[in-house]
Design a protein that fits this description.
Length: 270
């Protein structure tokens, strides 16, 4: 690569790290850049996964305040993330390279619908919980970090985390959007706290899949691209987390929708 290409990849990594800290889909900045510079799609995906890990670590650290009181919850979800990521990495290494071009836009459309409908659906779920509590003759208390989730809802969240991790291990683009949209529908908590939870789970997925790529397909990774993206994502992840925490829920959802639409356009035009 020439010097100007390296500089652009570092800048793309900064943008990807910052966006991943706020909502996700940073891969849709770095992936097209690598492809435009002649890096094969699967190599770009694998290199992205490895290079974005420093940014994932920085963004998770940046949301440490929102993660307080959530570690028991996180530890319960991590096994599903690990298993899903391993499954997705296996699919990437064995399925045709262009398979995601058909699958990913459909998943993104579903995610955007969930993001738009999330406030109304959350109100519906809360109202239903209140009615159930009143019917049972108990005083309703809003869900908090320490509350134990009903078994059915907990299993549903594990399934969502697992399926999203498969997607993340396979392609990773906009997995944060999909995950936070689904968590917002099922898990009663503030959006910024869910964003912190999302950052940690995405870090787990990317770390597992990247480790798999390094062990199984290290010869198919572009290490120059990895270093450039790693440097950029570390910077972007840290500052993105600091800025993202100050965003209002409405602004955060708007960013999610806009990035989701951009993601669909970029994937369809690759």
């Amino acid at each position: 690569m020439e010097l100007w290409q390296i500089a652009l990849i570092v800048l793309a990594g900064i943008g990807a790290g910052g966006i991943n800290a706020v909502v996700g889909s940073g891969t849709l900045i770095t992936f097209p850049v690598l492809v435009a510079f002649g890096v094969p799609p699967v190599v770009s995906t694998m290199s992205n996964a490895v290079g974005l890990i420093p940014g994932n670590i920085a963004s998770s650290f940046g949301y440490r305040e929102e993660l307080k009181g959530q570690w028991r919850r996180i530890l319960g979800f991590v096994p599903a993330s690990i298993l899903g990521s391993l499954t997705g990495a296996y699919l990437l290494l064995h399925l045709p390279e262009d398979a995601f071009e058909t699958i990913v836009p459909v998943l993104l459309v579903v995610a955007l619908v969930m993001v738009v409908a999330q406030p109304a659906l959350s109100r519906h779920l809360k109202s239903r919980a209140v009615r159930r509590a009143e019917k049972a003759g108990r005083e309703h208390v809003a869900a908090s970090v320490g509350d134990k989730l009903p078994t059915g809802r907990y299993i549903l969240i594990l399934l969502v985390v697992f399926l999203t991790a498969i997607y993340g291990g396979y392609f990773a683009a906009a997995q944060g959007i999909i995950l936070i949209a689904l968590l917002g529908l099922i898990l009663p908590d503030e959006l910024q706290r869910l964003n912190g939870l999302k950052n940690v789970l995405v870090l787990v997925v990317n770390t597992v899949s990247a480790s798999t790529y390094i062990i199984v397909g290290h010869d198919r990774i572009n290490w120059i691209a990895v270093i450039c993206i790693a440097i950029g994502s570390l910077i972007g992840g840290y500052f993105g987390a600091r800025v993202g925490r100050k965003f209002s829920p409405v602004l955060l959802r708007t960013i999610i929708v806009v990035l989701g639409l951009v993601a669909i356009w970029r994937i369809l035009t690759l």
